[in-house]
Specification:
The chain is an alpha+beta fold and 139 residues long. The protein has helices at residues 2-23, 26-42, 46-50, 55-60, 65-71; strands at residues 74-86, 92-102, 107-120, 125-128. It is globular and about 45 Å long.
Length: 139
């Protein structure tokens, strides 16, 4: 009986430790969010990436189906993180170098853009604050 009690106690400790480890630090959560964002961009899942944009930004800058359709005409050949910088208030800015391929002409061009990340204490998640990259640079 005593052995069974110790077994249950040991199992509870292991489960508690695993649960704490899975919560992850704020930095770990940032890396996970940035990885999910970069994967969505690299694979052309711009609608998926849009879901990682801060909800208030999405509400203030809604994307139309035509705008999403425009992203289907390009491919991403590279996504390089050139470095990041801590900003006031705990936000993080990350400079990105992209290779953008026009699927119709098969021409590639490079561009840079800056991602801004903000931690939402209430939701316990990081949000991308600058929206989808403007692959046409205002054109």
């Amino acid at each position: 009986m005593r052995m069974m009690k110790h077994c249950w106690l040991a199992m509870a400790v292991v489960l508690l430790a695993a649960g704490c480890a899975s919560m992850g630090s704020k930095d770990d959560k940032l890396r996970e969010a940035q990885y999910a964002w970069s994967a969505a961009i690299r694979w052309g899942d711009f609608e998926g990436a849009w879901n990682l944009v801060e909800p208030e930004y999405r509400k203030a800058h809604p994307m139309t189906p035509v705008e999403f359709e425009r992203y289907k005409h390009v491919g991403i050949s590279r996504y390089h993180d050139l470095g990041e910088q801590a900003l006031a208030g705990g936000d993080v800015a990350r400079e990105i170098d992209l290779g953008v391929i026009n699927k119709h002409t098969m021409t590639e061009r490079g561009m840079r853009y800056t991602e801004r990340w903000h931690y939402d204490e209430e939701a316990k998640t990081w949000w991308q604050m600058s929206g989808l990259p403007d692959l046409w640079q205002g054109e």
